[in-house]
Fold each of these.
Amino acid sequence: MILKESTIKEIKTRMERYPSRRSAILPALTAAYRQVGHLDNAVYKEISRVIEIPYVEIAEAATFYTMFPKHEVGKYLIQVCHNISCSLRGADNMLIYMQEKLGIKMGETTDDNLFTLISVECLGGCSAAPMMQINQDYYEDLSREKIDTIFADLRAKAEEEGK
Amino acid sequence: MQGRNGLPVCVKNMSDNGKEKEQVTLTIDGKEISVDKGTTVLDAATLMGIHIPTFCWHPKLDSIGACRMCLVDVEKFPKPAVACATEAMPGMIVRTDTDEIVKARRGVLEFMLLNHPLDCPTCDKGGECDLQDNVFHYGIDKSRQAFTRRRVIDDQTTDAFDDKRIGPEIIRNMNRCVTCYKCIRFNKEIAGEYDLGAYERGNHTVIDAAPGEQIDNFYSGNVVEICPVGALTNTDWRYKIRNWKAKQTLSLCSHDADGQNIMLWHDQRQLWRATSRRNDDIDDGWICNIARYGYQYINSPDRLKTPLIKKEGKQVPASWDEAISLISKRFKEIKDSKGSVCLAGLIGGNQSVETAYLFNKFFRNKLHTNNLDYRLEYIDLKGSDETEAYNCLYRAPFTIADLEQADVVFVFGSNFIKDHPAINLRLRKAYRKFGTKVYTANPVETKSADISLDEMIYSPDTETAFIAGLIHAIIDNKYYKNIDETKAAEVKTMLAPATLDEAARLCGIEQERIVNLAKVLSEANNPYILAGDYFVASAKRHRTANGMYDLANLLGIKDSNAIILASQANSMGADRVGVRPRLTENLKKTLIDKWGEELPESPGSNTSQILNNSLDEEIDGLFILGANPAMRYPDGPFVNSALDKLDFLVVADLFETATSAKADVVLPLAGWAEQSGAYVNVEGRYQKFEKAQDADKGIKSGIEIIHSIARAMDLSLNLDNAALMHETKDIVDAFEREARDEAKFFEVKQAQIPEHDNYPYRLLVGNDIHHFGYVTEHCPSLMRFTPEPYLEISPNLAEKLGIDEETLVRIESTTGKLVLKARFSEYFEGDVLFIPNNFSATEVTGLVSREGGGWVKIEKLDDK
Ligand code: SF4
Ligand code: FES
Ligand code: FES
């Protein structure tokens, strides 16, 4: 079993709030993601057993949402918006810069397991495009300088926590 | 309106449930039309003959408005609307042909082509592709595409052109998908299967099997047929012939009894594929994989192509003349020296009804014997020719489509998905759309019971006790109708076990559940009781049938609603034209009338009596046409010795079989696609099928064979093909069953359950889900789903016995032994085992006794 007792319990409590079991798919995925750090087939299978919804439907729902990482990711998951507003405001250049800066390609994780870089569709932050989301936080109006600072800060933070 | 194959499609008013509906009048392209309330603009336009292009719409699926191809202009709507999901409203003014709409549709198509590889020349769907047609019609021949197209390459695939195999038959090419979701919707909505999904979203959408699995469900072939583009294709058909080069012939599934309508695609020498031919009365346009791929045996390289004659113990090739004159000589000798009663005939349940009728006429009218039968897959008929109750329920006038109006359906002894693929889907539809309540009672957990409100599992061989219990529950709680208390009390004394409590204990189902079922059935307005193959194959089915008859009478269930379902494509036809020893009075009269002669007087023998009599040397000559009892009839050793004992055995079949191996003369027989004819399906519906391909020169049809034997014996059957068709149809039409007598009640007594201490496990034998009868092992596509025989075992029992999946297990009964690989069942829970009897390599019937089904012990073979 991948899911801990507590996670399963959480999923079951959430289930009770909905008239149909199907509605519990997203809360279940969220709970699993919080515990495991990413989602994969094995996790879908377990969720499917807990909420009694076919496995394939769990996989469909999970993959529909880009905010659930589907592989193991670094400590910081960088999701860069590449949708229209952000693109017009230079998201592509930001992406190239970030790849150079981190020395990884899209979808990869740095050797120190700190950063994973992916691009995503519109995050609803168009007014401050280009923008990105790192874990739960938004970073807006991106520029090269801003990116340098953000990465440096996060590195420092990680080191701090590492101690 | 034109369907995908250029064939007309009848569009039924969408008022599926037959109730009167409110009318709505609207205007489309300047013309007024009134339609049922709830009809979509698309359906209304279709009724008027106005064509609106679609991708995601399907007449039998709920509309989701995903593709936007069907845009139309509706006055007062701010933007174009999707016709397939817009309900017709009073006074609505719709235009389907404005410049703006044409422009909008062109826009939709341009988006669809954004990532499309434009590989029509190498795409198998070319010529029957909705995208190709629509693009051609709207003339999008320029692309403004400036960036690289999305390409989905699956790195595990070795196939060219970005193809990925996602199931035993199905190949997916994601580049061509227009994300209409029809495949997924069919799978989930109609079939209730969850082995295919749509992952990611928008531009990234991927259609694929469930992660790490395959799409291999029993109805999976339909997704290929409804995919509007070349995204889903199957190995069966692709790259073999272009669709416009293939001819189409109307046909029927030649296996199970539902009579699914199919279209055969062929070039007269070879069949290339089968597709559905929508018939709303039967299949709604969905066909199972056996109907779809089960035609392939016709083109098998193993087909028999010359007659064989046994000479000095060995079968050697011979000419037709030699074979026929030998048969005629030997039949005459037997008839003259020992009398007609020493001749007998058995015919398979998937020979055409004409063949069955001619067979009957040949034996009864020309050879003067009543020894004939078509029931070759049942357990022992026990001397009687079925009972009154059994026959009455078996011949009841049932209609598949009427199930939609049922409020409660009780399925008794059937895994519907295997036994009756079309009825299964109809029941699912009734459940999903009209809230029909389904209850099941089976000897084992079944796949199709997933929609059952209460899935009851009775202990082996306690069918009769179960039904007796149900009758007790009805009487004890006064749920009965049409009779008074005294009568009820009298009926109660005719039951064994004598109380509900005892009955419930014997069949291992809690009393409350039986009472609940009785209550639900008694409260229903339009309840059904349907009995399938587990019922039919149960040892004491006559006793159980009595119970079912009583039950129907007690609850006043309509004649058309309590049925024992027939098993094979023409079981009903053979029954109606009289291929059985005992005939109904009505049929006797019709036959005497047609033949102008009395029928032979001897009582006649049914299948089991024929076999018994041949063991006792009372039957000397047997003609088996298109059947394989040595492989399919219970108690293999008994059947084999009976066949060995015969003086003279003639077998006509498509293949060499265990039965033909015993024959003195073997005749190569034409398959159903090589001749025209008709089948009578489970409802008693007479349906024609047409000849698609010419048989090999060395092969003759059953009708030709019977005629040539008759001629050689100087007996003329005096029926050319047209007359035969006519006469057969007349007889089928004139058939009248002996109706149910509502005041009649039979005894319902559970038989003694035999002890089998040393053989603790119940063995069920039957069709694998992807096989039917003994010919499907010659269908490569079906063999891709289930390539070999296996022992299906519940994971619980396997664990108890230390058996792993794929390990070899020895199975032993009092009559035989077998070694097979174990396969864990997804459904079984108890101490029940299953082995398919569709593979000639395993003599599984050797494990089953004629009296009481199969009881076995099993043991893991050492790994050495
Ligand atoms: S694979 Fe075919 S049926 Fe399925 S969504 Fe794509 S185009 Fe539609
Ligand atoms: S387009 Fe980037 S946040 Fe909306
Ligand atoms: S057919 Fe109407 S939206 Fe697809």
Amino acid sequence: MSDKIIVSATINDEPTDMLVSQRDSLLEALRAAAGALGVKEGCNDGNCGACSVMLDGRLVNSCLVMAAEVEGSEITTVEGIADADHLHPLQQAFLEEAALQCGICTPGFLVAAKALLDENPDPSEHEIRYWLAGNLCRCTGYDKIVRAVQQAAAGTT
Amino acid sequence: MVTTEKPDYKVVGTRPIRHDGVDKVIGRAEYGADIRLPGMLPGAVLRSPHAHARILGIDTSRAEAHPGVRAVVTSADFPSRQGEEGEVGRADNVLAHDKVLYVGHAVAAVAAVDLHTAEDALDLIDVQYEVLPHVMDVRDAMLDGAPILDEKLRTANPDGSQGDTPTNVAQHIRYEKGDVEAGFAAADLVIEREYGTTMAHQGYIEPHNSTAYWSKDDEVTIWTSTQGLFAVRDAVAGMLGLPVKSVKVEPVEIGGGFGGKIPDYLSAPAALLSRKTGKPVQLTMSRKDVLEATGPTSGTHLRVKIGAKRDGTFTAMQAWMAYEAGGYPGSPMGAGTMCVFAPYDCENQLIDGYDVILNKPKTAAYRAPGAPASEYGAECVIDELAEALDRDPLELRMQNSATEGTQRADGFTYGPIGHEECLQAAQDSPHYQSELSGANRGRGVASGFWFNIGFETSMAAQVQADGTVPLVMGAVDIGGSRASAAMQLAEALGIAAEDVKPHIVDTDSVGFTFLTGGSRTAFANGWAAYECAMDIRRQLEERAATIWDCAGEDVSYGDDGVIRGPNDEDGAAQEFSFKELAAELPNTGGGIVGRADVSKTSHGPAFATHIVDVEVDPETGKVEILRYTAIQDAGTAIHPSYVEGQMQGGASQGIGMALNEEYIWDEKGRMVNSSLLDYRMPTALDLPMIDTIIVEVPNPGHPYGVRGVGEVPIVPPAPALHAAIYDAIGERMRMLPMSPTRILERTLPDDD
Ligand code: FES
Ligand code: FES
């Protein structure tokens, strides 16, 4: 269709060309054009954090970024957190601490928590809660999510 | 954990990593909106801008002519509207027929080449409305002369009779026990108060979605995030006029439900669009749609009256409760009336409940449906009684607590229950034993009750030659039920939880299974897993007898997973481990499948007691939670981490309902806060750690003593917070939510 454009970005270390419409958000593009279905939509207006991804080292809500803006960018989604053989310590900690129930918020929390630990490897409980306040979870009451981040930070997974 | 006494389980009570966990942390788990099918078209739904209007006509021709649009459907496309009365799929609620009854009511649906085109086309559908007066308050809707939503509706009265005039009151229920008048006359103190609660949404993070494919041979396949695969199948078959065998619902992961994903809104329209286009069609809701058009829980208006002797004995309890049903009958009023005084033993009770329709979204189940509102009223009055009688609030509850043998007003008599044990555990907890000091700080406690339920569950488990066991089930896993089923099967077979692989399968591949809700899944799955295991054990005993060439009764399968036979000719013991015998199966007659179809009514009620410390900011009205402890009788905790998780999640939803969450309407009946910014659910920053104490009073009606845990923890938070706020600032907040605005109305000096 005439209004489509190709946007090239590096997604989880893979150079990727995405055919997108000019009004697609990055969230739509990642899910539809890049097949990154681990990136979830909870609100599409920046209020739930389910669509959290790293964009050039910055934590963003992908529903608030236009796909057309990310030409040449580096993007990391939940699919890019683990390496080939091992889960990321946060992923392992989420499993061990039972930090997910339905799991729909989990991809966003993992990306956001990784961004926190990359910046502040030893956060206090308050810092974790403050940082993760942009990610909603309706199932867990956050207790076990906060503990999982603490556990991953302490390197005990 | 507080445990009375428990057998020496090997798997039950441990904390293995859930079987479906890895997929969920690497982003591979497939939720409803992740379904991708060849040729699939996205779609969008047109919704009513009016709270109450008659539909005079719908012209879809401009939308149909729009480039990229593939089909438009309205209620006229339903081949039948048999599903009209159902709670799961009500054709009129799914696509409005002659009237729209709330803002957001679905009117038409469009399938197009992409979502933006479908959304654009909605503006091209011309709907002619005759706008009617609307009614938004439950008390107004009950008045004579209120706008009538359904001219045909008559009140179903407690005596079985029907009212004879048009009304918005769909049902009046009454439960009566003893003589309340005499009970109040015998009281030294009677307290009567009014309370109100507002609509609150389940708030699952995943919006509703459904993908449907209607094939040329009239076979329909559906992929949707639902709490009940079979419930959707039956409702959709009804609405589409198809035999049940022609509708298959495929399992997908579900991103939260809490009762709100029992009703199905999108599957039937998606199927109708698929029939017209010949392609699979996927419909997903926006967050605004979710808030405006899917079931919240009812707002309510309550009056509660309790009488007590000077020594604290309750002499009479009375409640009058009106529940908003939304546009169609069916609020959780029935459960609310049975729950209101359920934690207590009192001779004289009178309970009246009303189910009232009005121009708000049709309510749906929400975690312990009906109970948080009614029990909030009762628990708040009990807190006032404790104060007036100068009694510790836990002790006063203990004195009047229901116990084994107590009969509720609705007639149910309890078996062994754990309310007293919860109260005692609360009394003994480090939290209750601690001192709380400081200005504007306060502590509150409250209890809660929920029934839990049983119903049908089907399962099959096949023993593989390597000793591992795939387990096939039909109950959707909304937060760890694969793990709890696998653990109970493993316990019964004497094998490791990791050797079981639980799978949820489509509605053609397993027997009928009731929905995931009512705190039934760990209980009912557990029963089915246990029965599957017993079936396997019987068959393995027979097989061992064949191998050893001995009588069947000489073989016994031990709980340790060892199959023992008679000594051999040389007098040596003969035995197989589970894995050894599994390895023999292919050459001794083939594989073994254990099956179970259970429908148990031996579920055990759940009780909980919560303790909360708060600090109220008198300048802003904000309530900060300093410390929170949730205590609950789980019967037996199969996987304690997930039991704690349910308690914490339930408490946090209850806290949201108590302090912040509400539907705010403008004068036209439009919700003005339909985003997750303005419909303010608790964030990580709003909550402290939520300490848990699991009490275990085993349910004698379950092989492992399971009661069910999911729902009751949403009940105590509001009354516990009411008591804590009163303790902090001396104000009794009798309207939920106890939001900053409402608190400031009390604490700020009057300007005028
Ligand atoms: S979907 Fe982007 S923040 Fe909710
Ligand atoms: S685990 Fe369900 S929303 Fe977080």
